[in-house]
Amino acid sequence: MYSEQRPSDEPDRGSVRFTVLGPVEVLRDGVDYAPSTPKVLQLLAVLVLRPGKMVHVDTLIRELWSDHPPRTVRTTLHTYVYHLRRCIDQNELAADGAEMLTTKQSGYTFHIDPAQVDTHGFIRLQQQGQKLQAAGDHTGAGDAYRAALDLWSGPPLANVPCGPILSAYRTELLEQRRSVLHLRIEAEIVSGRHRELIGELRSLTTSSPLDESLHGQLMRALGRSGRRSDAMAVYRQLRSRLAGELGVEPCNDLQTLHRDLISEGDPR
How far is residue 181's CA from residue 185's CA, in Å, rounded to a whole number? Predict the structure, then answer.
């Protein structure tokens, strides 16, 4: 079973955890100790992206001020680092804030274990799902993907003012979430949960009216549930929308799926 194959690499209870799959938080025993000052929180978010690795000063300056840094930019950055260390010390998040956040000649290193960041668990569960899916265990794969998605509490970096570095990372995270969502639905369709997915897929296609992959999955779920006419109606609506808004036809996979439905073939 999937639950028996999960590695036990989560931090122990009482240790500090960092979240970015939603609001940026610094959690210990369920209490959030993240700094409230926007620029300090933004600094923390960039450092959390590269746990245990040096982040160059120029990267931090570009994120915090884009192309308009203040004249005293390095002094101001050092002040934000000081406030972050003070937050660490005041809330006893580490034995020594200066040792947790060290200064290098050209940047700063945040000495935390990658397993303390929620993205680590997300990626691990994604990889676990892919291994199970490749081995033919679609039920276990669906469970792993669902557990990965359950780590999300909202839009990534939801409470942080994002500059160019964090904006790019947020886009990457959203694409990864979209990929895992598609993989989870695919695994659950193959494992026979197609009927349970119809309501969710209706909602997802309403939110993403031009997403051909989601529409294809909805068509397959409806077709496998004995609702071929509904599946073909989904295709007609999508085809009309694509033609009207983009001037294109549905992709080849969707056209093939539509032909299979017409000929009463089993949609694959």
Answer: 6
Strands (E), the chain: 17-19, 25-28, 31-32, 54-56, 101-103, 107-110
pLDDT, tens only, 215-260: 999 999 999 999 999 999 999 999 999 999 999 999 999 999 999 9
Share of the chain above pLDDT 70, in %: 93
- CA–CA dist 24, 118 (Å, integer): 10
User: Minimal CA–CA distance to 37: which of 79, 99, 95, 91?
Assistant: 79
Q: In terms of C-beta density within 10 A (0-12 exposed, 13-18 middle, 19 or more buried), how is residue 198 classed? A: middle
Query: 150 with 19: CB under 8 angstroms?
Result: no
Cβ distance 173 to 20 under 8 Å? yes
pTM reported for the whole predicted model: 0.88
- Measured CA to CA, the distance from residue 173 to residue 50 in angstroms comes to 14
Rounded distance between C-alpha atoms, residue 124 and residue 235, angstroms? 35
* Cβ–Cβ under 8 Å, residues 232 and 252: no
Supply angle C-alpha 153, 159, 163, rounded to 5. Answer: 120
CA 126/CA 113 separation, integer angstroms: 19
Instruction: Give CA–CA dist 183/74, Å, rounded.
Output: 44
Q: Are 132 and 5 in contact (CB under 8 A)?
A: yes
SS3 156: coil
Q: Angle at CA 69, nearest 5°, toward 63 and 74?
A: 90
Contact 97, 40 (CB under 8 A): no
Res 105: pLDDT: 85
